[in-house]
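dumping the sequnces here before i forget
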Amino acid sequence: MPMASVTLLWVGEVMSAVPLKNDKPVEAGVRTVTVLGATGSIGDSTMDLLRGAPGRYRVEALTANSNVEGLAKLAREFDARFVAVADTARFGELKDALAGSGIECGVGESAIIEAASRPTDWLMAAVSGAAGLKPALAAVDRGTTIALANKECLVCAGDFFMQRAAKAGACILPADSEHNALFQALSSGNRDELTRVIITASGGPFRTWAAADIENATLAQALKHPNWSMGRKITIDSASMMNKGLEVIEAACLFALEPEEIDVLVHPQSIIHGMVEFSDRSVVAQLGTPDMRTPIAHCLGWPERIAGPAVKLDLASIGQLTFEAPDFARFPALRLAYDALRTGNGATTVYNAANEIAVAAFIAEKIRFGAIARLVEATMNDWVRAGNLAPLSSADDAIAVDHNARNMAASLLPQIAAMAS
Ligand code: NDP
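..and the predicted 3d for all of it:
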């Protein structure tokens, strides 16, 4: 398909791979798509949009971790060419589930990477956690258009990911709702006219809770998000505001912003998703009902707009939009994200790795909710004290830091678990 020039976001010497203006010609005909993490919450929203536009898209590859049944069902429905699950023990089951369909399949990390490497016009990167990094990089290297939901892979690889994307000619479309809002608002001005971005946060289920109650919150309570329906890990991250911390880092990477240029604003209704302030003090915001199919539809249709299935925004019936400053004392995870961003040199990778260990431990009832942020902070401090900070210049660097930080967090886990709040 013919590709024309795309205006990219320039920041001094750094070129982000996020397109600034919609000057790409509309591609006619059927578009080929791949969905990494097809069985998850973002995957489900993406497949729903594809289902709503029959004949417009052809599915090349779909992937999952271990949900063979869900993946095989989607593969048959969309007549995918290739499917892969990360869990190598599921090969027999996957082959059986696809018997007679003619759909190729594979297992293990290499098969997920193969799915990402197959030529397509568009790819959704929606694996959860740092496991999404290598497959996302495989897609980056073939210079395709990537809707990026998997924030952890940016947080883990930092600037390196976006630099590699810019070099490969890949086009990164932010799928996370707040970053998609910034992406839409940014085209109202030039980079040197931008003074700050504001990402909103619902505040999660513990927004009004006292610190002592947050400390002892149960898994069921942490999984009750007031506005968004999402996967388990991100829902827990929303409750701790670790998710907002990851998003602050994600915004810095995507748009090449300094920490001081990124503000967080608690907005319980989740109607305004992000705002960009320009030098003349104009603030441009993107609004919509809280439904991930809206930002995903923006990425899927880009540079055009396609029909979205979300409920129409009715501000008169909502009545009021309210705002609060974030509370860094009750939600230390947010403060730690800014610390990690300022520290650089792999600190954001450590922040993410320690959080993945902490969330898994919380789900397994090994630590209290309040200990999630304590484990992340202890790991970051020990990492710095051990003299481990160093610039990341390759995927292997990022993966090594991720691996070592996980081990450090796991070794700190018993003492954090035993610690009184
Ligand atoms: P889910 O947990 O719902 O889904 C994750 C998907 O990734 C599933 O398909 C899962 O497969 C697959 N997966 C998990 N681990 C691996 C692995 N090791 N290797 C290969 N595939 C794997 O997550 P979400 O959809 O909620 O989130 C996906 C990403 O998008 C995350 O990075 C999240 O932060 C981000 N995001 C999510 C939003 C949301 O509303 N949900 C909003 C904005 C960003 P299986 O089903 O087999 O487990």
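Confidence is low (pLDDT under 50) at residues 1-6, 10-15.
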